[in-house]
Design goal:
The complex is a heterodimer of chains A (about 290) and B (about 400).
Chain A: H1 3-34, H2 41-59, H3 62-83, H4 93-114, E1 131-133, E2 139-141, H5 142-164, H6 166-176, H7 178-183, H8 188-214, H9 220-235, H10 240-260, H11 265-279
Antiparallel strand pairs in A: 1-2
Helix pairs in contact in A: 1-5, 1-8, 1-9, 1-10, 2-3, 2-4, 2-8, 2-9, 3-8, 5-6, 6-8, 9-10, 10-11
Chain B: H1 2-22, E1 36-42, H2 49-65, E2 69-70, E3 73-81, H3 89-99, E4 104-106, H4 111-124, E5 127-130, E6 147-149, H5 155-167, E7 172-178, H6 181-196, E8 200-207, H7 215-224, E9 228-232, H8 235-247, H9 250-253, E10 256-259, H10 267-270, E11 278-281, H11 290-303, H12 309-327, H13 335-344, E12 355-356, E13 362-372, E14 375-386
Parallel strand pairs in B: 1-3, 1-4, 4-5, 5-6, 7-8, 7-9, 9-10, 10-11
Antiparallel strand pairs in B: 2-3, 11-13, 12-13, 13-14
Helix pairs in contact in B: 1-2, 2-12, 3-4, 5-6, 12-13
The chains are: A mainly alpha (about 290), B alpha/beta (about 400).
Amino acid sequence: MDVSTFLIQLLNSLQYGLLLFLVASGLTLIFGIMGIINLAHGSFYMMGAYMAFSLTALSGNFLVAVLVGVALSVLIGFLLEWALFSRLYKRDHLDQVLLTYGLILIFEELRSLLVGDDVHGVPIPELLSASIQLSETLSYPVYRLFMSAVCILLAIVMYWLIRYTRLGMMIRAGSSNREMVQALGINIDLIYRIVFGLGVTLAAFAGMLAAPVSSVYPGMGNQVLIICFVVVVIGGVGSVWGALVAALLIGLTDTFGKVIAPDYAGLAVYVLMAAVLLWRPEGIFRRI
Amino acid sequence: MEQGFNRRRFLLSTAGIAGGLALPGTPLFAQSANKIRVGLMLPYTGTYASLGNAITNGFKLAVEQGGGKLGGREIEYFTVDDESDAAKAPENANKLIKRDNVDVLIGTVHSGVALAMTRVARETKTLLIVPNAGADEITGPLCSPNIFRTSFSAWQPAYAMGQVMAEKKHKNVVTLSWKYSFGEQSVAGFKEAFEKAGGKVVKEMYLPFPNVEFQPYLTEIAALKPDAVFVFFAGGGAVKFVKDYDAAGLKKTIPLYGSGFLTDGTLEAQGDSAEGILTTLHYADGLDIAKDKAFRTAYAMAYKMQPDVYSVQGYDAAQLFAAGLAGVGGDVTKREALIAAMEKATIDSPRGRFTLSKAHNPVQDIYLRKVEAKQNKVITVAAKALADPARGCRM
């Protein structure tokens, strides 16, 4: 592998890792802070992608579709938390798994009824449709770079939100001791609702952002779900910072695994997970 | 849900025609009072739901065109949703065979499920017609007198493409596919023909199924600079691959070829990225075949949508079974004569007439198609009457 190919592969891994981070960050928030195992996380990702498809077709504008989609996702997140998840905080993980698995089935069926089972594409917005020539045969779509930039921006915003704002302080407090926070007069139910809504929105937003490059198809959520859990486990449950590091590590391992040992590419990520767990059973970072 | 609605709408819209046809006819064959029991084991939910529906529609269209009968006998359907789940396949197949006592089993789309069905059919000696799954084994090592296929083997379209690409003077080719049996069989078929004709596969690349992170492979291809690329992908993966290949700027310099599934049922989503791509398959748009035109009109009238290669395969499954029944006057108990009649049949398919090989796989023309204005337009016949080598079949 020459230097330029190596650098391009590095760019590929960075770009893949950042997108993984965006999808997984919502999962780590919900899992780490609220203690809910949310198997339906992949379905929210799929929901986002399908929203991007339907709303772009309706409005003719990708940006409008994303804005409306985000608003809808927040709403759906709040609604689900209020109707279903708020009843699960004190139950054990098995009940949560049962509910969220049921949600996967419901979301798949709804998708089938509303949009059908065909594969769809979402056009890349005009403004970002150019590409940059990297080598004589290979060019890189600007939209992919834009995606990476958005992911980095969101990582910074999330870090700031949780570390330096009053809301972030309450979230962190709530995750370590729910009762104590309640006793101090903080409306913990509202905090949880916000966190859950944020988690759903992050997943859906990732789906929308990825839709133009990944296309939109049935079962797409289940594909990202497993890798998201790997990100969360490697990074440390509940740690946004950990999720970022883990996602980038996975991006590197996956990309170079495919290049160096293509026959074992499917295994590489899980070998990484096993190694990290042996070294630090709680994940690379612990807590926010 | 969709399924029931379609069937009802179909019956409503064709009841008049079918009734009209049935009235004056005197029975051609001695009929027993019992209906023939047809077991449809196809995916009606999940990723392949639309394929399962297309096959069912095609099969039922052939039956309705025969006045609701096949070979003079009335038909009763038993349906099981196989969910494309190989783990449930033996149980599902046994449900139809043992509980519903079907005379013929039709299925399925997913190769893993079809392989399990093939094993059950071999054990129970049930007549099985496979209307899609392309795993080479079904008409290879697992072949059996009671097992038929009306679609294709993975080897067929890929082998034809190997010849086409060699004729186009491509010397060095890179292949890319998912690492599972259908993908590997496609690449093997391609490689066999291409290297026989003097070409060279410089690198075979595989990615784990159903991974769609293609960027590292595209970077590899750009660095290797082959004359052309041959791939096998289908469905959502095919859409993403074709778009990524175009976005990476590779389409301009390194032409992309594939088995027909790369651009079948996916063109709407692929948009301009697919324009001009050459693929090989046993069906195409714009075939100059009278039977195809009649089929397309009838299908569109009945279901208010356009047929695809899957509907053709379902239609031919019914035609093949009808040919067998005609040979025995509708008496399914004459098993050996029924099978002999099916083996000898020439199926007047919308794809063009075909016969069956010794291993019961279609001996058929494979078309070279080019994507033009969101259609897979036929260019020429890439391989005339191509028969699968049926390696490992002792029959």
